[in-house]
């Protein structure tokens, strides 16, 4: 029984760690010309920033919350004062759902490019 | 220069003759009076060398009358022919404002929809004139049809122009999916769908297509103006013959 419990804990821990790392990559948000880069290690989401090769601009996000297959970040664009909170939920290894609140409200799909 | 009267009435006297025959008189120096900017008869900055004439009082008081538009202007203003437009007839373009969720900047986004493939042809009064196509892919018809009111004149127009080199057609046309060569129907470039990225080469093709469209339209307008002028002249000639 004790061994089973330990094994279960290890499996759950492993699943949790894998879920965080699954965010790692370059992503394309629908209706946006920015490419979203998420750097995630086995343990946490380290950094998230958006790059536009059309507007020659980089917008960084501040990560404020993390859980197993979710994380929340705050985005502020100093160029126009645009401010939103984005909640990312991992759907599968190649897609994320992002829920925007703040200056814009809506749910946008994100697909993995890399 | 001195002037001596040698003919005409001997005792004629006039201020002008006296002035010319007076050896001591010199040409008057410009007095520096400048016509006003609002004077429509003289351009601004004209030096008045005639002290007896006040330029400022010479005004163009004739009421301005708007001239009727020329046939060419009327056609250009009122009869835009969209049958050869970039996206072709039957292709609907809807533009909406989209906010980028990441940057918050708004932009215009165009979507295209079509339920029909436009038909292109040139009809002339004596039968049908069209462009033979060597492509089995598109269009399936050997003669393309157009309901453009300029098609007729374009087909009848003589001379080397970008349009009638193609037999009255512009070089390229669009269906709902592609920019195509008018004569062969071969695909030259795709029409971007919603969300698709547009390549520089495609933009170049569209620009070329648009230029060709515009040139073609100008040619057709010119042809129509020419034909209408000829028609008017022939009618006048007929009237003259009838009356005499």
Structure characterization notes:
- The complex is a heterodimer of chains A (114) and B (244).
- Chain A is α+β, with helices and mostly antiparallel strands and 114 residues long.
- Chain A has a single domain (2-112), classed as Lipocalin (Beta Barrel).
- Helix content of chain A is 18%, strand content 56%.
- The model of chain A is unreliable at 8-17 (pLDDT under 50).
- Chain B folds into two domains: 1-52, no CATH class; 72-90 and 119-241, no CATH class.
- In chain B, 27% of the residues lie in helices and 15% in strands.
- Chain B contains four helices and nine strands.
- The model of chain B is unreliable at 1-10, 28-60, 70-91 and 114-167 (pLDDT under 50).
- Chains A and B meet through loops of A and loops of B.
Helices and strands in order:
The complex is a heterodimer of chains A (about 110) and B (about 240).
Chain A (H helix, E strand, L loop, with lengths): L1 H20 L3 E5 L4 E7 L4 E8 L4 E10 L3 E8 L4 E11 L2 E8 L3 E7 L2
Antiparallel strand pairs in A: 1-2, 1-8, 2-3, 3-4, 4-5, 5-6, 6-7, 7-8
Chain B lengths: L14 H7 L11 E2 L12 E2 L22 H8 L12 E9 L6 E9 L7 E2 L4 E2 L21 H6 L15 E3 L3 E4 L5 E4 L9 H44 L1
Antiparallel strand pairs in B: 1-2, 3-4, 5-6, 7-8, 8-9
């Amino acid at each position: 029984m004790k061994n089973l419990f330990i094994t279960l804990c290890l499996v759950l821990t492993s699943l949790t760690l894998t879920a965080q790392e699954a965010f790692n990559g370059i992503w394309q948000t629908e209706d946006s010309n920015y490419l979203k880069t998420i750097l995630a290690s086995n343990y946490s989401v380290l950094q998230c920033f958006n790059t536009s090769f059309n507007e020659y601009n980089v917008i960084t996000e501040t990560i404020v919350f993390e859980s197993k297959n979710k994380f929340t970040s705050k985005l502020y664009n100093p160029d126009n004062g645009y401010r939103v909170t984005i909640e990312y939920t991992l759907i599968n290894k190649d897609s994320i759902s992002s829920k925007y609140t703040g200056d814009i409200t809506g749910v946008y799909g994100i697909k993995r490019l890399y | 220069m001195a002037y001596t009267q040698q003919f005409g009435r001997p005792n004629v006297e006039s201020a002008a003759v006296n002035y010319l025959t007076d050896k001591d008189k010199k040409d008057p120096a410009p007095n520096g009076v400048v016509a006003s900017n609002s004077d429509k008869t003289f351009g601004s900055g004209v030096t008045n060398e005639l002290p007896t004439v006040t330029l400022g009082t010479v005004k163009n008081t004739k009421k301005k009358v708007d001239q009727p538009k020329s046939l060419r202007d009327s056609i250009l203003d009122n009869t835009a022919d969209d049958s050869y437009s970039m996206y072709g007839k039957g292709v609907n373009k809807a533009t909406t404002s989209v906010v980028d969720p990441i940057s918050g900047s708004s932009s215009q986004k165009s979507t295209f929809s079509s339920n029909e493939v436009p038909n292109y042809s040139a009809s002339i009064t004596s039968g049908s004139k069209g462009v033979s196509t060597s492509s089995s892919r598109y269009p399936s018809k050997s003669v393309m049809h157009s309901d453009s009111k300029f098609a007729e004149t374009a087909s009848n127009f003589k001379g080397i122009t970008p349009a009638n080199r193609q037999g009255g057609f512009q070089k390229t046309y669009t269906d709902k999916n592609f920019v195509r060569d008018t004569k062969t129907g071969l695909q030259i470039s795709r029409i971007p769908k919603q969300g698709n990225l547009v390549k520089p080469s495609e933009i170049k093709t569209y620009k070329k297509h648009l230029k060709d469209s515009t040139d073609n339209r100008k040619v057709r307008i010119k042809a129509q103006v020419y034909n209408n002028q000829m028609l008017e002249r022939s009618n006048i000639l007929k009237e003259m013959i009838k009356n005499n």
